[in-house]
Amino acid sequence: MSQTLPSAGTDTDTHGRTPKKAAVASFLGSAVEYYDFFIFGSAAALIFPTVFFPDADANAAIMSFATFGFAYVARPVGAVILGHFGDRVGRRKVLMFTLLLMGASTFLIGCLPDFNTVGWWAPALLVLARLCQGLSAAGEQAGASSMTLEHAPDNRRSFFTSWTLTGTQGGQILAALVFIPVLALPDEIKYGIGWRIPFWLSAVVVVVAFIIRRTLHEPPAFEEAQKSAQISKLPVADLLKGHWRDVLRVICCAFIAAVSTVFGTLAISYAKTVAGVDGTTTLWLVVGANLVALGTQPLFGMLADKIGRKPVFIYGAVASAALTPVFLLSLESGSVPLMFLAAIGFFSCGYAASNAVWPSFYAEMFSTKVRFSGLAIGTQLGFLMAGFAPAIVAAMGGIKPGGWVQISIFTAVICGVAAISALTAKETFKVPTTQLGLK
Predict the structure, then answer these.
(1) For the segment 290-313, what is each residue's pLDDT rounded down to a tens digit?
(2) Distance between CA atoms of 375 and 379, rounded to whole angstroms?
(3) Whole-model pTM above 0.85?
(4) Mean pLDDT of the chain
(5) Locate the Major facilitator superfamily (MFS) profile domain: which residues (predicted)?
(6) Residue 188 CB: number of other CB atoms within 10 A?
(7) What distance in Å separates the CA atoms of residue 220 and residue 306, rounded to the nearest whole number?
(8) Tell me: the pLDDT tens digits for 353-371?
């Protein structure tokens, strides 16, 4: 069984499923969506305090991180709306919408005036555009994960759905690579037109992903539900009636996503402010760890198809908690090789296990009738912790000398909640797709 990205060639099985094509479309769509999402995170750590909050002094970093978190406020609202339509009219149509909304809002961020031009209107417009990004992201992973799982063979669901989250790593790599030359520019260019270029470039990748995603059809399971009139009229109502425990379980498990923002956003600021590590080096740490994760996440997906979702997910949560202080202290060591080794261990060999498995783990808790809604609402409520993790920890003193302690404690708590919640779930890796979520 190969861990390389599946070919998008003809792979239709006897049930009309196209798992390879679905995995490729999900990978590319997630890469585009999260390129847009992560360039905002990089800019929030390195650019926006100067461009949008020059009068905030010591509070500039906290306010900038708060704009990053606003998208996570919009995500639960988007999850309810997009989950409803995803379960009512189809996964593919919603995924096309989320792609276009993310691309448009990201391009417009690059066009915003700065604080020196329009005052506080500048951060207000930034928050508005960020809210649109959040609405889009609310449906992307849930829709892509639902579609890929429903296209996948019963015994390889975790492997194929892992490519949805591996796409987010591709997006983060691209975002970091685009920002590295921006940081090398003179300040007058970097804080003028330079930072805008990565946001404008999103238009190109959105067009490419849109063309690819158009060719994907709805999963046979959803099409069969439409033909037999088994589509729910009010998916959210049916979800809360029959699956409220699973929704609560997914919310708590989804706290694990805060590890990603600790690594990709908070640690960048910590390294720059406390350890004196330049922004270029920290972005290369992000690139290196995510490159390795491109290989490890499909492997973790394969492992979960062999031994189950729960042990792989829980291992990822425990490893993330244990390796957070190791990674943070490596940033203060002054040794770049040590930083890279710690980053790869923490992110690529620890967190990547939970990240690869959660699309199948969460989605398998729900039936086809409410899967999109359950996955979207559960994850987006849980992701609120990820969105505000940088601002919360910064307010706790996490980006001051000795702040590695606060960051490590915070990460250990959220990982503990995720692991304990996962222990309460049923193991589903041997359950046929048609029987998932049935009581």
Answers:
(1) 999 999 999 999 999 999 999 999
(2) 6
(3) no
(4) 86
(5) 22-430
(6) 9
(7) 25
(8) 999 999 999 999 998 889 9
CA–CA dist 318, 433 (Å, integer) = 29
> Amino acid identity of 191?
Y
Return d(Cα 292, Cα 4) in angstroms, integer. 13
Say which amino acid occupies 326: V
Q: Which residue has the tokens 């994760």?
A: 293
pLDDT digits (tens, 9 = 90+) for 257-287: 999 888 877 777 778 778 788 877 888 888 8
Q: State the DSSP string of 210-221.
A: HHHHHTPPPPHH
Q: What's the 3-state SS for the chain?
A: CCCCCCCCCCCCCCCCCCHHHHHHHHHHHHHHHHHHHHHHHHHHHHCHHHHCCCCCHHHHHHHHHHHHHHHHHHHHHHHHHHHHHHHHCCHHHHHHHHHHHHHHHHHHHCCCCCHHHHCCHHHHHHHHHHHHHHHHHHHHHHHHHHHHHHHCCHHHHHHHHHHHHHHHHHHHHHHHHHHHHHHCCCHHHHHHHHCHHHHHHHHHHHHHHHHHHHCCCCCHHHHHHHHCCCCCCCHHHHHHHHCHHHHHHHHHHHHHHHHHHHHHHHHHHHHHHCCCCCHHHHHHHHHHHHHHHHHHHHHHHHHHHHHCHHHHHHHHHHHHHHHHHHHHHHHCCCCHHHHHHHHHHHHHHHHHHHHHHHHHHHHCCCCCCCHHHHHHHHHHHHCHHHHHHHHHHHHCCCCCCCCHHHHHHHHHHHHHHHHHHHHCCCCCCCCCHHHCCCC
